Amino acid sequence: MNDWTIQGQPPAQEMPGTPWFTDDDIPAAKKKAAGSRFVSSSMRRYLNIIATDDEGNLVQPDGGVVRLLSFVGDDIRHAHPEVEEQAMYAFAILLRSYRYPLKVVTMNFPVNTAAQRASIERRLKHADGPRREALEQEWRTLERLDRTRHHREYFFLLFAPDAEEMRQRIRSLRQSIGVHFRPIDPDKQVRLVRQLHNGAETAYDHENHEGGER
């Protein structure tokens, strides 16, 4: 089971991929998450997520909730040193002020230039000579990027025992100056969690060792 999962480990005697909760556990979790709707049986089986609730949380068998938020920030790898320092300082302040478990995960996604290539194709219909050659070269460059280039996105993975506590923890996160994030709709969260299960890089794992809270 991946390290982002907040439940305890499954019984050692079970085979990998075997759910370590049964359908009998689901009604109890359902009661703790009003308005929740079940995810597919395969998601329940392999990802320890049984439902999504009205607030955008992913619900686990014991009623605990998980939330994935998209981190909004600039790529500082080629930024001015002063900008890089300010960004790192803001993130350090967040980690000092946020008292609960938090994981920062990164995921690579293919570059999608379909809209740009479609625009070039429309212009090609009315272009000739050097202009046409330039557009064709630009189209080939974009097509090559689609095949070879990826962009990296960062996400916050939050954990809480219930939806009310999750609201409080998100409010706490919003108070961090210089660090911004945006919500992700539940269906997309489920897809991203599936990708996390299949392997993604944990950039930072901020655990509350003192309080032992989830």
Report on this structure.
The chain is α+β, with helices and mostly antiparallel strands. It folds into 2 domains: 28-110 and 150-206, Alpha-Beta Plaits (2-Layer Sandwich), CATH 3.30.70; 114-148. The chain has 7 helices and 8 strands, in the order αβαβββαβααβαβαβ. Strands 1, 2, 3, 4, 5, 6, 7 and 8 form an 8-stranded antiparallel sheet that branches. The longest helix is centred in the middle third of the chain and has 20 residues, at 129-148. Residues 1-36, 200-204 and 208-212 have low confidence and may be disordered.
Could you give a quick summary of the protein structure above?
The chain has 214 residues and is an alpha+beta fold. It has helices at residues 26-32, 41-47, 81-97, 114-124, 129-148, 163-174, 186-197, and strands at residues 37-38, 51-52, 58-59, 65-72, 102-110, 150-160, 180-182, 201-206. α4 runs antiparallel to α5.
**CATH class identity of the largest domain:** Alpha Beta
Instruction: Tell me the CATH architecture of the largest domain.
Output: 2-Layer Sandwich
Number of helices: 7
Taken together, the total number of domains comes to 2
- SSE pattern: HEHEEEHEHHEHEHE
Mean pLDDT: 71
Low-confidence stretches: 1-36, 200-204, 208-212
Distance between the termini: 17 Å
Give the helices and strands, then pairings:
Layout: H1 26-32, E1 37-38, H2 41-47, E2 51-52, E3 58-59, E4 65-72, H3 81-97, E5 102-110, H4 114-124, H5 129-148, E6 150-160, H6 163-174, E7 180-182, H7 186-197, E8 201-206
Antiparallel strand pairs: 1-2, 2-3, 3-4, 4-6, 4-7, 5-6, 5-8
